[in-house]
Write a structure and sequence with these properties.
Chains A, B, C: Keywords: Amino-acid biosynthesis, Arginine biosynthesis, Transferase. Chains A, B, C: Homotrimer. Chains A, B, C: Pfam families: OTCace (PF00185), OTCace_N (PF02729). Three copies of one chain form a homotrimer. Chain A contains twelve helices and eleven strands. Chain A has a five-stranded parallel beta sheet.
Chain lengths: ~300, ~300, ~300
Amino acid sequence: MKHFLSLQEIQSLPSWVSEAVELKKDPYRDHALGRGKVLCLLFFNNSLRTRLSTQKAALHLGMEVMVMNFGSEGWLLEYEDGTIMDQGKAEHVREAAQVIAQYCDIVGIRAFAGLKDRKTDEAEQTLTAFARYAGIPVVNLESSVGHPLQALADAITIAEHNTRKRPKIVLSWAPHPRPLPHAVANSFVEMMKKQDVEFVITNPEGYDLNPEIRQGITVEHDQAKAMEGADFVYTKNWSSFTDYGQVINQDKNWMVTMEKLGKARFMHCLPVRRNVVVEDAVLNSPQSLVLAQANNRTYSAQLVLKKLLQQL
Amino acid sequence: MKHFLSLQEIQSLPSWVSEAVELKKDPYRDHALGRGKVLCLLFFNNSLRTRLSTQKAALHLGMEVMVMNFGSEGWLLEYEDGTIMDQGKAEHVREAAQVIAQYCDIVGIRAFAGLKDRKTDEAEQTLTAFARYAGIPVVNLESSVGHPLQALADAITIAEHNTRKRPKIVLSWAPHPRPLPHAVANSFVEMMKKQDVEFVITNPEGYDLNPEIRQGITVEHDQAKAMEGADFVYTKNWSSFTDYGQVINQDKNWMVTMEKLGKARFMHCLPVRRNVVVEDAVLNSPQSLVLAQANNRTYSAQLVLKKLLQQL
Amino acid sequence: MKHFLSLQEIQSLPSWVSEAVELKKDPYRDHALGRGKVLCLLFFNNSLRTRLSTQKAALHLGMEVMVMNFGSEGWLLEYEDGTIMDQGKAEHVREAAQVIAQYCDIVGIRAFAGLKDRKTDEAEQTLTAFARYAGIPVVNLESSVGHPLQALADAITIAEHNTRKRPKIVLSWAPHPRPLPHAVANSFVEMMKKQDVEFVITNPEGYDLNPEIRQGITVEHDQAKAMEGADFVYTKNWSSFTDYGQVINQDKNWMVTMEKLGKARFMHCLPVRRNVVVEDAVLNSPQSLVLAQANNRTYSAQLVLKKLLQQL
C-alpha cells in the first residue's frame, strides 16, 4: 500500500478489522514505530472527529503531528497544468505537494466535494495531485467522493456489535436542509461490498447514488420495506447525484424513528442533525452506535498509519 | 474534584496557593504524571494567555495537547434539547461532548458571555453541557460568568507579594469602549471571599455586580475613598449587570493613575487598554503585577491539571 | 547572538553554511539540546514553508512548539507608546511580548510589510517591539524588510550546487499581478554581499531596490545582458520602492524562460506563480532548485535555533 486514498487498498477486510480490534486493546503497543516520524494534516475543510482522532492515532504511534488549516493559513492552490497564474491562486499544487513532502513522512488531506460540477468532484483534484506529486504516503481524510477512514471505522463497529452470521444492513437516505456530498455514503457502500452481508440501499426517487458505486446492490425506494428485519441501519443524507449536488426533496417522512428502527442498531458518521435526520429517541437509546463509530475513528486511522509506517 | 468549573472546587485556598508556589520551583517534577494523557483545548473565543499558558502547563506535566478553535474549525453547536435542527447548527453538544471525550483525558473550554441575555449567560450552556455529557474532567478556561484559573493565578500573585497580615484589596471598575463580560470580576470577588482580607469593590452607580456574588462585600461608589490605604488595586472593566451587558458610562475619571494608586500594587488580568483603563505610568512602574499574574496562569493551570490527573 | 532578526547576525557565512550542511546529515544529533524548551511561533500573516519547516526544525532539536495565528486567535496589538487605546486595539505589544516570553524560550515572528507607508514598514514595528520587550531570543520568520531564514536557506542551496570558484549570480525581478514586499529580495542581496560571487541585480526602470541595500551592487536594466553567463538566476517579484508599494509595470517580457535561463540554475523562494513569474518548463526542469531551497528552510531554521539554544 503506497497511499490510503480509497478502500481499494484493503485486500482482506476481516484481517484489517481484527487487527484494529487488537490495536484497541493496547493502543500504545506500536509507540516506537512512529518515533521521529512526522504526520502532516492538511484541512481544506472543517473537521472535528477527523482532526482529533487522527492526531490521537498518531500520538499512540509515537508520531509528531503538524496540523494546518490550508484555506486560512496557507495559499490558494492552482491545480490545472499550463495555466497562466495571474489570478487569485498564488501557488501550484505541484510545488505545494513536493515542498510539504519534504517536511513530513505521511500527509493526510481533507478536501470536500464542491458539489458544483460532478466531473470536477470525481477528479478529486486535491487528493490526486498530492498523491501524484508528494512522493510520500497520502491518507484520505475525506475527499470529494470517498471517506474510507470513516467506512473502516464503521466496519470495525459493525464487527464489534454483530451477533448474526449474515446481518442485514440498510443504508438509508435522510432529509437535510443543505446539499451534502456523497463521500460517506459511497465509501459505506464500497465497504459493504467487501463483506458477506445482506445489504440494501434505500432512498427517495432521484437520490440514487452513482451507478458505478451501487452496481450490484439492491436499491429500494420504499424505506419501510427496506428496513424490515434490519440488524443495522446506517443513516446519512446526500444530495442528488443525477441532478448533481441539488436538494430535490426534504421529505420529513424519511427521518429515522424508533418505530422504524425496530430492533436494529443505528449508525451515523456525525455530525448529525437531531429531529431532522433521526429523532432524539434513537440517538439517546442504547441502540445507537454513533459514539462507538466515532471512537473507532482513532483505531481506523491508527491502523492505516501503522501500515504506512511499516512500509516507510 | 470531578471538574474545575468554578472556584467552588477549592476547599482550602491556602493549601492550593502554597502547592502552586511549590510547583513553580520545579515545574517538571510531575512530568511522569501526564504521560500518555491528552488535553484537548476548545476555544469558542480568542485567547492569548490562556491558550499558551495552559499548553505550557500541560507540557510541564508531560501531557499531549490538541488545540481546536471550535468556531472556525468545527461545527456550529446546538445546545437546546428537542430542537428540530434544520437551521444553521450542524451538531448537538450531546454528540460533540461525548465524541471529544473519547479522544482525550481532560478537556478545557473557553466560551465567553454573549452579553445579550442574562439568563442565557448564567446558564453557561457550553461549559455545563460539556460537563454533563463528556464524562471526563472539564476545565473552565473562562466561561460566561467565571474565570477561575485567572482568579487562582491572582491569588497566587497576591500571596507572593503580600507583606501584611490582612491586606486591603480593592477591585475597581475602569472605563472601556466596549461592553465586557463579568467573568473576571466575578471570580476575583469569589476568590477574595476565600481569604482573610479587607476587600472593597468600587464602581460607578449602575455598575454593581451580580448581588448574589457581591453578597457581604462592601461596594463603595467613591473610588478615592475605596482606594485609601489599599495594598492591592485590581482593575477591570465590566458592563452593567442591571442594564445587562450595556456600557452605560465611560467616565474617564475612573482610569487608574499613579496618583490614585499610591503605594498599592496594581493588578489586571490583561489584555489591558493603556490610558483608558490605566495610565502608562502604572503599567511601566514596579508596582504593576500584571506580568506576574500572567506568569502564574501557567501554574494555576498546572495545579488544576495535576489534581485532575491524580484522580483519573 | 541575542536574536536572529537579520543577516547581520551572521559573522562568517561559510562556517554557518558548512554547519548547516553537517546538520542535514544527522538532523537529530542535537535532539537533547532542546529538551524542555518551548518555541512559540506567532503568525501575523499566512505561511506554508515557514510554518512547517520551522516546526520540523524544532522537532529535530527536541523542542516543544506552540503555534499561534495571532491575527485570528489573539488580540489586535497597539505598537505606539502613549496612545489612548480606546479604538480597535485591545492589547499593547509591551504586555503581549513580555507575557508570551514567560511561556516560551524562543519566539519566532512573521509580520509582513503593509506596503502602504515606507517609514512604517522600515520601522519593523512587530519584530522590533518583540525584540525590545520580550527579553528572550526573537527569530525573524519574515518581517517587513527582510527574510533572513530564506536567504540562509538560499545560501546553503547555492553552496550545495555550485561548481565554480566565483559563480555568477543574478537576481531578476519578474512580473506579478499583486504588489509584493521587498523582504526576500533585500535579504538575498544582503546575503550575496557576504560571499565572493559575481552578483548582478536586474529589474525594469522604476523597480530599483532600496539604495542602502543595493549599495555597491550592479543594477542592470537589460535582463538579457544581466543573465549572460549566469550560474544561478534567482527570480522574485517586488513592488516599486521609489513609488512605494506600487505595481508600476507588469511587463510579461520579464518572465523567466528556459531560453533566457541557458545553463543556469533557477531559484525562487516560493510560492511562485507559474507562467507569470517563470514558465512551466523551468520549474519542471532539473535546473530548478526551488524544492532544494524549500527543503533547506528546515536546516536554516534548525541552525539558527541551535545557536540560540546554545546561548540560553
